[in-house]
Amino acid sequence: MVPALVICHGELGSAFMDALDGIFGPVDEFHVISNRGLSNEALEDAVRAKLGEIGRQALIFTDYFGGSCANASLTVLKGRPDYRVVSGVNLPMLIYYLTHRDEMDMAAILPGIINRGQNAIRELTPPGL
Amino acid sequence: MILHLDDRLLHGKILHGWSAARASRIVLLSLRLEDSGLSSRCQEVAGGVPCICLAGAAKLPEPDPGDFWLTDNLGLAKELLEAGLVESLKILGLRQGGEELAADFSPDSSNRKMLDEMASQGLRIEIQSFPSSPARIWPF
User: Fold this and answer.
1) Which pLDDT tens digit goes with each residue over A87-105?
2) Domain B2-137: which CATH class?
3) How far apart are CA B84 and CA B94, in angstroms?
């Protein structure tokens, strides 16, 4: 199973975890870091420490490309192509990840995660009267 | 066949937490299906799993082992159990503002009374929020 590390602004990562607990029940191998109150260096240290705690290849989700969470991930993982980082995390992506991580490795699961996340963004039309 | 009950009908916890998204067919029983396009929305939410939507207990399909049967209505569930059309009822969520007796289970007084009636008839009712959480037999 590929573990996940969600690195987001504020309480967003914890909120994702809380929502997923409401869908799947308690979820393991799912880790969260918030950038709240952390300098860039402190955030990088937190990411390093968490990856050390996880102890193996992990898939990293961040909230938006170019933000401090994504930047810290890329800095820490410089020269580590065995880790993968995905930005723009949303709930459908995480649901896809959790429902496929037991049967797929990192390379296989990643395209589906991105595809599911992109396809979930659409305009919804209310039913007619 | 187990009939599942959740008052939110088809949603994330049912699809993924209870693996309805991996069923070969979803059978939905609800009095609300005719309202506001709910039936077609359920088909869409089911994400490609064949979904039969019924507004009552009439014209029930032949049960299949790969089925996931789901209702949001305790009255309908009672009818089906009493008629022997389903073997048991598993309540995954019933959030009605009453006392929270278990996770996602806070029936109002009328539904609590109905549950007691069903139990007194020997009908099997389990309360279980997730597959990983313990199932409890009503009454408790």
Assistant:
1) 999 999 999 999 999 999 9
2) alpha beta
3) 22
